[in-house]
Every structure is written in C-alpha cells, then in structure tokens.
Structure prediction request, 154 residues.
Amino acid sequence: HPSLKNTLTRRYKDTQMKRFCKAQAIQRRLEEIEVTFRELEQQGIKVEKSLRDEGGTSADQKTQWMNQLLYLVQKKNSLMSEESDLMIAVQELKLEEQQWQLDQKLRNYLNKEESLKTPEDHAAEQEILAQLLEVVDKRNLLIHIQEEKRLSEL
Prediction:
C-alpha cells in the first residue's frame, strides 16, 4: 500500500534524523569532555608542583592544595563516567540503525509470496533473522551494562 509505505519511509527518515542529531550532540559532548580532561590535568600538575615545592608553606595551604587535588580527581572520575555512558549511547544508536535496516530487509522477504521464494530467499531470510537476533542480544547486553554501571555507582 503506497501511503503506508510513504508513512513508514517518513517515519524512518524522522527517526534517522533524530539518531543523527543525537550522535552529533554526543560527539560534541565527547569533544568538550576531552578539552576539560586536558584542563583538569594541567590544573592537577600545577597543584602537585605546588605541593612538591612547598618550602615554607603553611599547613592550611597544604590542606587547601590537597583538597583541590581531590576535587580535580573527583571531577575527572565524574567525566570518565559520563564519557563511558556516552560511548554506550553511541553503540546503542549504531545498533538501532542496524536493527532498523535488518527489519526492512526481513520485511521484504516476509512480504514475498511463499510459493515464489527460492531456496536462496529462505536462506537469506534465516541469515537476516539470525543477524537481527544478534543485534537484539547486543542491545540487551548494553542495557545490562548500563544497569550494572548504575547500580555500582549508587
């Protein structure tokens, strides 16, 4: 049915555009994190140098530097955790796209009249189904990883 096909095509294009925008936003954030990492490392190096060259520094100043160092480490750990979440999100987007493409291929075979299918068609259908199950398993694994990560952070 042409209008159904048009609706599905439009829906696919919308979904694809959303995935693309999401991927771009993730990429931008990953770049920001990279810049922030470098800044934190530079600050950390300065604080460590101050601690080493402490000559006649007061105990209060040393404590302040230690606290600053601790803060930088916590900030870096927090960014690493966010980066890890974003990498998982990228994988998720890739798998969503793969799943959609495989769904489309499978639908083409399933819409074909059974009596017209060649042995090659049947084999291709089985192969696509196997790939689809593999993608679904990978997506489930990502969900499991995210859940484990979330629980370990609590």
DSSP finds three helices and no strands in the chain. Residues 2-153 form one domain. The CA atoms of residues 99 and 133 lie 9 Å apart.
